[in-house]
Amino acid sequence: MTPDSTQLEMDFDAIAAVLAAALNRVAPTGVWLTSERAYGGVGVFTNTSDGRHGGTGLPESFPRGAAALPFLVESVLDGVQDDIAELTGLPWPSDPHSTKPLPEAWARVADGQLTFGYGSIQLGDGYDISGLIVTLSR
Fold it and tell me: Which helix (H) or strand (E) holds 74?
């Protein structure tokens, strides 16, 4: 890489905030999610009204290149799904088109938009990746 070239890298704080907000819109009653810096990194934390909690980190060791964005989002969605199912004792989310109790997490980037969800469920209308990716000058 030349000294004046640039590199695109994921903004873990922004990604965690987007995921927590999107998941809060569909979380079961008595469950809410937050994005926080903790334990030396960023995480999406699942909380319940009875005081139980779980957390899914965005590991600092995860490749930070922009191309890895869908894989990071899928990883976090998997973790949150496990946390919610464990904390509530119920499979979540309920997908009428899935033959599995826990529909598979997915994420895609196309035309500058990040979309994600579980099974046939899409969470939100898509998110502009320009707010999730930073440009680093090298």
Answer: helix 69-88
